[in-house]
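Researcher: Here's the sequence for the chain we discussed earlier.
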Amino acid sequence: MQQRHLQPTISPAHIVTLARTWLGTPYHHQASAKGIGTDCLGLVRGVYRDLYGHEAEQAPAYSRDWAEAARSETLLDAARRHLDELVITEATTGDVLAFRWRTGMMVKHLGIIVAPGRMLHAFEGSPALEITLTPWWQRHVAAAFRFPRSQ
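Model: Thanks. This is the structure I predict for it:
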């Protein structure tokens, strides 16, 4: 779990401010366009772009069942390439959570912690919104990540 040097402009508060600019963006599978359309990956990609001025990597086209079809932790592996992995219990404001819908399934969802017990995410059928991390969500957290403080 490599930690990079903290830059003053990449603080948890700054990450939350950027993430909240995505609030209300309609859900659109594979999109990452603030105010136009996004999915959960698109939201995290968009905040990453806002922080660093570039895309971490080009996301390939993906279907809704891509993880099951490939039997591969594609989303989790990509997060590990571009974000700093944390012990889940150390995740705090500004960090990214990765979720499994069920035990044994691949990671398929991401959200950004915006306050204690709250996250912002994009979910099919709803615009990007802020929700409470209820016990159901907490049970499904598979990994936690921090945006690198320097890039």
